[in-house]
Design brief:
CATH architecture of the domain at 3-112: Up-down Bundle
CATH topology of the domain at 3-112: Methane Monooxygenase Hydroxylase, Chain G, domain 1
CATH class of the domain at 3-112: Mainly Alpha
Number of helices: 3
Radius of gyration: 32 Å
Oligomer: single chain
Distance between the termini: 120 Å
Structural class: mainly alpha
Strand content: under 5%
Number of strands: 0
Order of helices and strands: HHH
Shape: rod-shaped
Mean pLDDT: 86
Helix content: over 70%
């Protein structure tokens, strides 16, 4: 492969990473809406997490591929900075954009984590309340059942 092809691959990799980070940002917004909406089914959260996991896997693959290609062309880029000045500048801009989007994702993740803790805490309280109510109702019915029991009685049949 020629050097320009390697540089094109690096640039395409960075551009794809930007697009994937945009998708992850959207998935985080969806996740926030899921946590805030009491009527949203838990399956929707599970689906969102699965989709986001797939996007993260793609990011990791891109990182690995980028690193491999970069190792092959690193020396050439260092030696011929002037020749590839425009490409290097564009890649630096993309890397800055990726860094900004990564910071946004991290902030969203922290906020969503707090919302998740609150939601699960709320669900836990509801479950505990439901168990207590069920236990009280069960006790009540057991006690009421005992009250309807009439002790054996003997009839005196002497006249």
């Amino acid at each position: 492969m020629q050097d320009k092809e390697y540089i094109a691959i690096l640039r395409q990799s960075l551009e794809k990473k930007v697009r994937i980070l945009d998708l992850i940002i959207e998935k985080n917004k969806e996740q926030r809406a899921i946590f805030l909406d009491e009527t949203m089914p838990p399956e929707r959260l599970e689906e969102n997490l699965k989709e986001k996991g797939e996007l993260i896997d793609q990011l990791n693959q891109l990182d690995d591929g980028f690193e491999q290609v970069y190792q092959r062309i690193r020396e050439i880029l260092a030696k011929e900075k002037d020749t590839y000045r425009d490409e290097i500048k564009k890649m630096q801009e993309l890397i800055r954009e990726i860094t900004d989007k990564s910071a946004t994702v991290q902030t969203q993740e922290l906020r969503n984590r707090e919302l998740a803790v609150q939601k699960f805490s709320s669900i836990k309280k509801e479950i505990k309340k439901a168990r207590t109510t069920t236990k009280a109702a069960s006790q009540y019915y057991k006690n009421m059942a005992k009250m309807n029991v009439v002790d054996s009685q003997f009839l005196d049949q002497k006249k």
